[in-house]
Amino acid sequence: MTHKNNNAICPGPINRRSWLKIGGLSLGALASGLPPNLAQLLAAEEQGGAANDDFSVILFWANGGPSHIDLFDLKPEAPAEYRGPFRPIQTTVPGMEITELLPQISQLGEKFTLLRSLHHERAEHSGGSHRFLSGYPSIAANLKRSEYPTIGSIVAKQLGASAGGVPLFMGNTPLYGGGPAYLGPAFEAYMPNPNPSSASGANTYNPKAIYKLPGTGDNLTITPEGIVSLNRRQGLLKTLDLLPGSIDSSGMMSAMDSFQQRAVAMLSSTRTRDAFDLDLEGETTRRRYGDTHWGKSLLTCRRLVEAGVRFVQCQATFRLKKETGRTSNWDDHSVNSHIFNAYREKLPSFDQSVSALVEDIYARGLNKRVLFIFCGEFGRTPRIRNQDVSNRPGRDHWPRAMSIFLAGGGLKMGQVIGATNSKAEEPVERIMDSNCLLATLYHRFGIDTHHAFHNRAGRPVPILSSGEPIPELL
Q: Helix, strand, or coil here: 32?
């Protein structure tokens, strides 16, 4: 399969005077470099254009680290202190088994592939997320934001932060250890209403919607306070001309230009705005995904890629019952949750919404260009831990083995790639660094991984220094 190289497609930011012909921000927002609130922007003219048909990714990120041995790599013959209470069930592909808690997904075996032999060396949450999504180990162990750009930011940089009136990289909230790093804030995910706590290391924040919540439409539309009068715009223009050069030299003004461009694209493109409006979906489709946080999130993700977004990053957080655990992510230490009760509680919703998305992208013919990925920064310890005073079961961090769920993307589905040992401790077949998955994704995007960006010290750093595409997928 031939893929065009889009490295050259990187339109420059609009200049300040051009932006002010469309609309403006307050001087404080411009000077501070804060991402613009869409309610502060002035809408541009409607812009049309068909959605881009090229490769797109929906990353359903299980921040905290999902347990591979309880989901997609069960070991029923392992000792009791390893295997857990769940039993494997057969999928529609002979020899491919997954947990019994995912019966709907099990009926779609020919539409997904499991990677069971990826690994890396970082066992901290943000360090692991950074390593997995950037391809580089960070110096800091528990970094809030990335030292190297993660994949969504590189896609936005290489394919153009906004194209055809649509932001190319969108998310619901920042990742702990993720971000654009030295590419600059212009290449952060466009997030309509993010929660900074999601990048703080806290694991108790409430799930953050990527869909439009009732009564919160103002973050996607123009409100009266967002209208900037002609006189105010003219005054702002004169003030901007007097700004000290130090602001521009920081690169923040060009970042703001890009933020503005992306925000205008959001407002001026009915395709993008409509993607957030689930009321435009039929009742049958909404019911199939489920009236749940995950159901509405994944339905919105599908609508976003249909609108032309190329990388959607959505955290798979879930609010457990208080008696089950305190965490909202997949960090299932015994001090955080009863891991098996947590899976019994949240996997029915996961089964419904993920199976609906997989069926949907195939029914709509999106499977040739849209890849759904479910994974986290690492797996969990195969041996069950009981650290909590209540003696409830849990599992700890484990980057030596993990399972990745893939569906669609024009890749070869219906297979299991790799295998771990009898206790799911480490890969023993098709052992691959996690960079191999990144290399596969960049290959499908048509992005040259040898292309280098200059870091803040002026040193050229290639997109990936190691890792080859996985041939079994291509």
A: helix
pLDDT 10s digits, 210-233? 998 876 544 554 333 333 333 343
Q: Tell me how far apart the alpha carbons of residues 63 and 204 are, in angstroms, rounded to a whole number.
A: 12
Give the single-character DSSP code of 383. S
Q: 89 in a domain, yes or no?
A: yes
Domain of residue 211: give its range: 51-220+280-473
Residues 293 and 409 in one domain: yes
3-state helix, strand, coil in the chain (%, to 5): 35, 15, 50
Number of domains in the chain: 2
For the segment 225-248, the average pLDDT, to the nearest whole number, is 41
Task: Using a pLDDT cut of 90, give the percent of the chain over it.
Answer: 68
Residue 409 token pair: 């993307």
| Distance between CA atoms of residues 298 and 282, nearest Å | 15
Q: Are residues 110 and 215 in the same domain?
A: yes
Nearest to 379 by CA among 194, 123, 200, 196: 123
Q: pLDDT digit string (tens) for 149-180?
A: 999 999 999 998 656 667 899 999 999 999 99
